[in-house]
Amino acid sequence: MSEPSKTPPTSKDVRPGPGRKRSEASRLAILSATRELIGELGYERLSIGGIASRAGVGKDTIYRWWPSKGMVVADAVLEEAQPFYLAPPARSGSVDQDVRAWVHALARDFVDPVRAGRIRAVTAAASEDPATAERLYERFTQVQRTGLIDRLRLAAEAGEVRPDADFGAVVDAILGSLMYWVTARRADLSIASVDSLLDVLLRGLRVAPESEPEPADGRKA
Amino acid sequence: MSEPSKTPPTSKDVRPGPGRKRSEASRLAILSATRELIGELGYERLSIGGIASRAGVGKDTIYRWWPSKGMVVADAVLEEAQPFYLAPPARSGSVDQDVRAWVHALARDFVDPVRAGRIRAVTAAASEDPATAERLYERFTQVQRTGLIDRLRLAAEAGEVRPDADFGAVVDAILGSLMYWVTARRADLSIASVDSLLDVLLRGLRVAPESEPEPADGRKA
Amino acid sequence: MSEPSKTPPTSKDVRPGPGRKRSEASRLAILSATRELIGELGYERLSIGGIASRAGVGKDTIYRWWPSKGMVVADAVLEEAQPFYLAPPARSGSVDQDVRAWVHALARDFVDPVRAGRIRAVTAAASEDPATAERLYERFTQVQRTGLIDRLRLAAEAGEVRPDADFGAVVDAILGSLMYWVTARRADLSIASVDSLLDVLLRGLRVAPESEPEPADGRKA
Amino acid sequence: MSEPSKTPPTSKDVRPGPGRKRSEASRLAILSATRELIGELGYERLSIGGIASRAGVGKDTIYRWWPSKGMVVADAVLEEAQPFYLAPPARSGSVDQDVRAWVHALARDFVDPVRAGRIRAVTAAASEDPATAERLYERFTQVQRTGLIDRLRLAAEAGEVRPDADFGAVVDAILGSLMYWVTARRADLSIASVDSLLDVLLRGLRVAPESEPEPADGRKA
DNA sequence: GACTAACCGAGACGGTACGTCTTGTCTTGGG
DNA sequence: CCCAAGACAAGACGTACCGTCTCGGTTAGTC
Asked: Where is this chain compositionally biased, Polar residues type (chains A, B, C, D) (predicted)?
């Protein structure tokens, strides 16, 4: 979940060669110090020097393995990310049940102040460095997005939801809402609101009970 | 749209007193230079000194009137924000038409690279300074949010949409999606996706055609 | 002792014309505030803004009448300089008595901590601004120097001291010693040391008791 | 003549420890740039940033090793101070010859415009910062003072000069005069004046040729 | 008694320098 | 070759003053 990002020793391309091996202790100390300092200072006031000093590590050891502060933060947060929401939703029941259960689990995590702080840190990191954004998207967002989309597609095949909806847009609305609540609105992310949004979305996705003639009016494209 | 932020001369509480008056030319030069530099450098590489130098202004003149880089950016962007999406959606037709028209207009703005860059800048500013976040929320997000919510409430009174939905959550899903697309996903915000999301949401909000028995299953709270 | 230095209303060249007259109250407040702040902060940490604020005066009122911080300090100190050492030494006795009495009076002033602080301030002012140095030399040092030299010349005419000595050099040694003690050596200026120096100098100036054959050896030029 | 002033590695108290060593090249570049800028701008208009920029060095490298502008100037000037006047006067002849030779050498240095400029700079530095004054006194003035006093004391033992004079006061008059000429009087320091002062002082120090009864009159203490 | 010019307080202005902080690189000595 | 320590060049930070420039408001004269 956080191998060297700069020179990833992908399998065999690096000869074991002479020289001291990378210190796992240092790597862990750096990521752990980073998580601590995110909690104490937030992303902006975090500094590479501060992490090195807290971790009892030379600054160069950080620069040797990570290209930027954002990447360190990304790895630090990813390392402790809960595994359950990197797994796709269950397929054992109705879409409603499965999606709701999965989103609830994620939302509960977002509600925790420590986790929310890390989400904000990681968001700030992404917003100032495209490479970090890319990494986070690949390793975090995309996994969730794909999992949810696939579950919806399965439901479509099962005839539970309309097959012609843009599932990507729907999933983005769910994940975007959560992000929006912990970053932009900084407010009370309530489980009730999440639930209510899911109500509307799932109802909107449901196959028309009869021959409802299309949304009809107001469509642009 | 960008009166002094530090000592807002709220109506009459500031006597015209002695001393040179604030230079409107400087204020405009600062905000204009800020917008230019956001486009050229992005928020992170923007510096107070750089703004001052580009604007032909002393750094103190910036620090005298704004408490942080974020606030300068907020004012710079707010000053040129289009007025139409600070106005509420029209009430002249179906909810579908009115909401769609309003969201389209906003989305078209988000698609413009210059505007999108400013949105990202303003988002970064908000994510590193709560005071800036607060200002932006008050002056930008809240206005839009309230406008949309009120339009939905009106529709509820008119029997167009279900009155028991959490309109706040729905609106946050719309605005959150847009934010999410220009910041986190950094991807192609397509009008088609926006439209598709609106389809699902509006359909989900529509009053049940008959005695649909409630979402029923999977509800948590 | 401290008329306007910038635009000295030398007699008649300025028509009395209409317009408000210079405020004597402001002038006094400025010089007085300057003396206070010299005591509290020393010359280096003194600022024009600080003087203006302490004096309850606009900065421009200072800049209108004085060209530099050094000049304000010069005037502030000159205004309260004791008159006795701006008068020449008495001519009522032996050179020894007259010179010693005059130098004692001056030295006693230099020993006072407040006065010594002002001397140091004025010295710093002179060392950073030639115009201030010039003004202080004219109004302070030169007066003393000329007075002492004249007294020694009178003694030479009276046959009390050797007429071929360089009285300027001797007087500079006296005044230079005092300056040196309060500025460079920052040490204990003791009246005893002054006395001892005067012993040596006056003895060295005394006419040779008999046909002493000249210093003879070691002369360079 | 200019080891680190902040953390002087006095012999063994600093373990050689890990970490990059202080760059001698930077140290020399800083002191050399300082001397250049003293000549071009004078002490007052000298700035740390200017020194750093001229030396091709970061500001921090200056602040790391010197506590103030004054100290940098002190080290810069001390480093190129001529060694001869930090050595005591010769003891190879009459006091007259030895003292005169030594003072001439010093005075010739003071006459040189570049050296005089440095003396003025160092004086200004001392006058605005006690710590700098202390350092300069220890490393420069005190050495000269002690050397001269010792030579006079030796002469006293040899019966060349009166043993009861305050040699400190006499030496201060010599050194003070020189300082006074280059700083306060800003005037023509002429070798002739120095010589004349030495005439008077040395004559005044000479043992009374016969039973001269004491200065007698006018003595205070 | 109005006019008018200069002075005054206040304080904003464009600048320069400050001393601190952080960045990313380089160097040293030890493992 | 890795690592901790830490010096280095670069440059942004926010503060303090500089000396200049409006602002209204206040005094004197002169019409």
From this structure: 1-10
Q: Are residues D102 and D156 in the same domain?
A: yes
For residue D165, the Cα-to-chain-centroid distance in whole angstroms is: 24
Same domain, A100 and A28: no
Find residues 42-101 of chain D whose CB sits inside 8 Å of chain C: 43-44, 93-94, 96-97, 100-101
Query: Are C144 and C49 found together in one domain?
Result: no
What is the H or E stretch that residue D117 is in?
A: helix D113-128
Closest alpha carbon within chain A to B98: A218
Same domain, B57 and B117: no
Number of CB atoms found within 10 A of residue B2's CB: 20
Residue to test with chain A: of B180, B196, B198, B210, most A Cβ within 10 A: B180
Whether residue A200 and residue B205 make contact (CB cut-off 8 A), yes or no, is yes
Q: pLDDT tens, B38-70?
A: 999 999 999 999 999 999 999 999 999 999 999
The string of pLDDT tens digits covering residues C135-144 is 999 999 999 9
Most confident of B205-209, D132-136, D213-217: D132-136
* DSSP letter string, chain C: ----SSS---TTSS---SSPPP-HHHHHHHHHHHHHHHHHHHHHH--HHHHHHHHT--HHHHHHH-SSHHHHHHHHHHHT--SGGGSPPP-SS-HHHHHHHHHHHHHHHHHSHHHHHHHHHHHHHHHH-HHHHHHHIIIIIHHHHHHHHHHHHHHHHTTSB-TTS-HHHHHHHHHHHHHHHHTTS-S---HHHHHHHHHHHHHHHBPPSS----S-TT---
CA distance C177 to C189: 9
Euclidean distance between CA atoms A149 and A163, whole angstroms: 12
D31 and D107 assigned to the same domain:
no
Q: Above pLDDT 90, what percent of chain C?
A: 68
Partner-chain residue, chosen from D96, D126, D203, that has the shortest CB–CB distance to C184: D126
Instruction: Establish if D194 belongs to a structural domain.
Output: yes
Distance in Å, alpha carbon of A24 to nearest chain B alpha carbon: 31
CA pair distance A213, B161, nearest whole angstrom:
17
pLDDT of residue A216: 43
pLDDT at C14: 52
Residue D44 distance to chain C (closest CA, Å):
6
Domain assignment present for residue B200? The answer is yes
Best to test chain D binding among C123, C200, C205 (most D CBs inside 10 Å)? C200
